[in-house]
Amino acid sequence: MPLPVQEGPNTDEARRAVTILNRLADELRRRETETTRRLDYYKGKHKLCYASPEFRDYFADRFKGFSDNWTAPVAAAPAERMNVLGIRLDPDERTADKELSEAWKVADCERTSSEAFVVTLAAARSYCLVWGSSDSEDEPRVTWERPDQAIVGYDSDTGKRSAALKLWSDDTREYATLYTPTDVWKFSRPRYARTGYSVSGLIVPAGSDVVRNAGPYGWQPRQGDNDDTWPIPNPMGVVPMVELRNQTLLDDDPISDISGVMAMQDAINLTWAYLMNALDFASLPQRVVMGADVPKMPVLDDNGQKVGERPLELDTLINERILWLTGDASIGSWPAADLAAYSNVIERAIEHIAAQTRTPPHYLIGKVANLSAEALTAAETGLVSKTGERIVYVNSSIREIHALMALAMDDEPKAKACRRGTVMWADTQFRALGQKVDALMKLKTIGFPLPWIAEQYGLEPHEVERVMRMAEEQAQRDPINQALNGAVQPPAAELVAEQGDPLQVEPEPVA
């Protein structure tokens, strides 16, 4: 069925933009199921898996909504140690770039980047979009995007970003913004346009009857309140969205930190369900009636008169915690069940999670028995190493984000320097305060300068500068330093300067 061609937007460039949009949108929907599943596991929204249909039939309603959650600490443990302090542009300088650090804080990246790191580790990827701000040229707008709403396309030859897509929807419409190095294309379409048959990819004018059958196409041009043209020119000259990837195996499929934990999490939750079921049914000594006939229920007519009997259903007996055995009636009992077997299985499964993910056992089990600071530090060695690896994976992306911020601030030389700069991260190892101070004092003794010591202590770059100014002011107020530097002469020196040295003998003139 031919579509009406709208004058203007239906150009070759617009058709190519729609083709790129649909290709990226199809890939985004392909990833959506697994991405949503991983994020649901991190949030504890995973359904209970049952070992048998009988257990599910009897207890599905009882344990509905129950979930223990060990995937959250596995992903959050390294993410909470990934804190960006700034970017150093010149290797000879000791501080981070001040303008970029201020822009980072104004854009609330301290909080949102921390959230993005959690999503990156849990869902395997996240995204960051940088664009100019209409309020101030020195304050670029930085937003961190979910992997089920954003995607970046790459050139197959160079590996550079060729396009990026942000896709979202409300109750009635679906919205898409396509970013290319030269333009920004904005589209929308009714949500029901996603069902139906595919068409040629033409842009459908608003109000067209064919929109409802446009399949994955049917995109209509969309202009914002402040947009003067369609498409919008991209003044940055590059795709303004960056992908943060977790570990890959030299392919385009990053690995989630919790992929291997989810199956073990299902086993732990199932064991918990069996344990709580045993608490209800077998935690106390049980009695059983043996040898008696199964009780029967009377069958009544419409007038309430008994007209017969029927045996109780076995399911009803089980739910009422009654066990009937036919024959000569007698009373028997059995002791309470040993519930330690269930808890031992759960603890063993948690230990497997700790070993496989390099998460310290005391982060998961919570048992700490008089461990020294050195023992705790040794227990966290694997986590520190893992966090360092994750920093390596996202380091280039953080540099590129700072480069985009510089481009949004119309500073191309600084953007070029950002791509070669050094991202400054907070110390990934947590130590006891006394242990850390002792190590830093030893480093200072062998000659390390105070600014470097302050950085290793964990101070942010602007705090290091403030501490150095405070140290200089304190040194200037020290009378001993003032005397040594000649800033203030001691009283004896002042007396000699004014009256002369009484012990000094003037030499006699030579005849």
Summarize the structure.
It comes from Nonomuraea purpurea. The chain has 511 residues and is α+β, with helices and mostly antiparallel strands. It has three domains: 247 residues, no CATH class; 51 residues, no CATH class; 67 residues, no CATH class.
Structure description:
Mean pLDDT is 80; it is low at 1-8, 193-202 and 206-216. This protein is an alpha+beta fold. It starts with 11 loop residues before the first helix and ends in a 12-residue tail after the last helix. It is 43% helix and 16% strand. Strands 4, 5, 6, 7, 8 and 9 form a 6-stranded antiparallel beta sheet that branches. It has a 3-stranded antiparallel beta sheet with strand order 3-2-10. The chain has a two-stranded antiparallel sheet with strand order 1-15. The chain has 3 domains: 12-258, no CATH class; 285-335, no CATH class; 432-498, no CATH class. It is built from 17 helices and 15 strands. It has helices at 12-42, 53-59, 71-79, 98-106, 109-123, 259-281, 314-319, 340-357, 361-364, 373-379, 381-408, 412-418, 433-445, 450-457, 461-477, 479-485, 491-499; strands at 84-88, 125-131, 141-145, 150-154, 161-169, 173-179, 183-190, 220-221, 232-233, 241-245, 286-290, 296-300, 306-311, 330-334, 422-425.
Secondary-structure blueprint of this entry?
Layout: H1 12-42, H2 53-59, H3 71-79, E1 84-88, H4 98-106, H5 109-123, E2 125-131, E3 141-145, E4 150-154, E5 161-169, E6 173-179, E7 183-190, E8 220-221, E9 232-233, E10 241-245, H6 259-281, E11 286-290, E12 296-300, E13 306-311, H7 314-319, E14 330-334, H8 340-357, H9 361-364, H10 373-379, H11 381-408, H12 412-418, E15 422-425, H13 433-445, H14 450-457, H15 461-477, H16 479-485, H17 491-499
Antiparallel strand pairs: 1-15, 2-3, 2-10, 4-5, 5-6, 6-7, 7-8, 7-9, 11-14, 12-13
Helix pairs in contact: 3-5, 6-8, 11-12, 13-14, 14-15
